[in-house]
Amino acid sequence: MGNSSSSGQRGSRRRRVVALGVVIAAATALLAACSSSGKPTLYWYINPDPASDTLSGQALLAQQCSTDKYTVETQELPTSATDQRVQLARRLAAEDSSIDLMSIDPAYTAEFAAAGFLAPIPSADAKEMAKGKLAGIVKTATFDGKLIADPLWANTQVLWYRKSFAQKAGLDMSQPVTWDQIIDAASQNDGTVGVQGNKYEGYAVWINALIMGAGGQIVKDPAAGVDAKITINSPAGRAAAAVIQKLAHSSAAEADLSVSNEGTVLAPFASPQGAFQVNWTFVYPNYKADPATFKDLGWAEYPRTDKGESARPPVGGINLGIGAYTSHLDDAIEAAKCITSLKSQIQYAIQTGNMPASAKGYSSPELKKQFPAELLKLFRDSLDDGGPRPQSPYWSDISGAILNTWHPPSSVNENTPSESSAFITDVLHGKALLQ
Predict the structure, then answer these.
(1) What domains can you pick out in the chain, each with its CATH number?
(2) Residue 357 pLDDT more than 80?
(3) Less crowded by CB within 10 Å, the N or C end of the chain?
């Protein structure tokens, strides 16, 4: 994307976000103020970490990365990535200077950069931040050829399964399996397949992975913004729709499929009908408190959409952005480097189950004490082979249009890709509104 195009889209995006109609309270000016001692406080807006009885996660990193020069304090955002994006975008559209640092879902990093919401990172600092980080994760934090955020942690999905169920169903889980195979196995043996089917970003993640797993993509040349070519109406799109349609109309679908998310699939998996679930890396430590399920817990490569194509597992995580309107840019950059250091990433992975963004993290002795070596290898391989969502400044519009046409899962059929392609195009060109 050229400079003139980037500037035009930045203005367009800012107007679109301002149109969300937010008015930032005057109290935000107080948040940005220095403490009475004169030492500035850097406010870091974070996605919620798993609940803990002790100081941990991002809150602990904030404390550890506070110095004699500044204090880092966290402000918690809503639970869902979509709501996090809305709250941050609204405040930044109002040029809120109290946002010094922010945890951003990779899907929205390009949008924030195009809107001018992220402070430019000097090239020397950008080079230092990217050093040692996984190439695929750095790509999610890059826009217009420049690093615009600092990767903190990486995430991917794998296929979690009950070893006893796979044995009963006669599935060889040491070999790649397809969606058809696990749906059939669950249907024929009174089991369930847990997925993310609610009308939210997690469902768009599943759809994207299914399409990429069939050799396709939702958008071609996403950096072209509204002029990007929408390619969801393709053989790959129809293969993805077939998987969703099959699961939704099978006995393997969980009763709450249309409102399911990463958390709701955990309990059914631990029930007598538990068989399979696709989910993020946090699943492994989650079941440690349930010895029976933990002992029976297996893991494998993400299911293949097409047996002739390699799986393209979802890629997620968090990129650490620096607010464009911060009054403490140098301090924020210094704090970001501390928060995303290898030591911090490993500590964070042990506490939350969210994997490091740095390659060396996967060979650390500390992490190997908490996770089996073969599972860490699967996580690393899945990130290397993963299929990230399109790095488009308009991903929130594209994702919203997909959810409008692919939800509920029970409504999906062979015509859905064509209908969604037309609707996405209309939304991007202002001819239709999201519902």
Answers:
(1) 3-155+315-385 (3.40.190.10), 158-312+394-428 (3.40.190.10)
(2) yes
(3) C
φ/ψ of residue 249, rounded to 5: -105, 20
What pLDDT is stored for residue 38 in this prediction? 84
Selected residue with higher pLDDT from 19 and 51: 51
For 280, the token pair is: 């993020």
The answer to whether the CB of 94 falls within 8 A of the CB of 24 is: yes
- The neighbouring-strand residues paired with 71 are 41
